[in-house]
Design goal:
With 121 residues, the chain is mainly α. The protein is built from 5 helices and no strands. The longest helix is centred in the middle third of the chain and has 24 residues. The chain binds fe (ii) ion (FE2) (2 copies).
């Protein structure tokens, strides 16, 4: 019988995303950190989206749309001509952290419950 009520991979990947966002706030952060954030975000979102498709998750369109908004934010950041100065990075990192926090504790929790239920049956 399963004791834990959380998806280990999903939780670990969220932690990793928050860690990268913290790096983005650091003085030494550069474009490389944004690229890392983009790569890991893509890896994580794709995995969630695969689960949603495989399990025919009812909220998947809304969820994938939310992922796209985050992808666009990061792409916009990478595409901007402006130098990523410390103040700008701080603002962006804070915004992305707040967005991700809402996503992880809202929409992702519903997906988590659905995956856990599906794997239990
Ligand atoms: Fe997630
Ligand atoms: Fe998600």
């Amino acid at each position: 019988m399963r004791k834990t009520s959380e998806l280990i991979w999903q939780d670990a990947q969220h932690q990793k995303l928050f860690e990268i966002l913290d790096l983005l706030k650091e003085e030494a952060a550069d474009r490389e950190v944004v690229l890392r954030l983009q790569a890991y975000t893509e890896y994580h979102f794709e995995l969630e989206e695969q689960y949603m498709l495989q399990l025919d998750f009812p909220g998947r369109e809304e969820h994938i749309r939310a992922h796209h908004r985050f992808r666009q934010e990061i792409a916009g950041l990478l595409g901007s001509e402006t130098e990523l100065d410390a103040q700008f990075r701080e603002i962006i990192a804070t915004f992305l952290t707040e967005w991700l926090t809402r996503h992880v504790f809202g929409i992702d929790k519903r997906l988590e419950a659905f995956i856990l239920e599906s794997s239990a049956s």
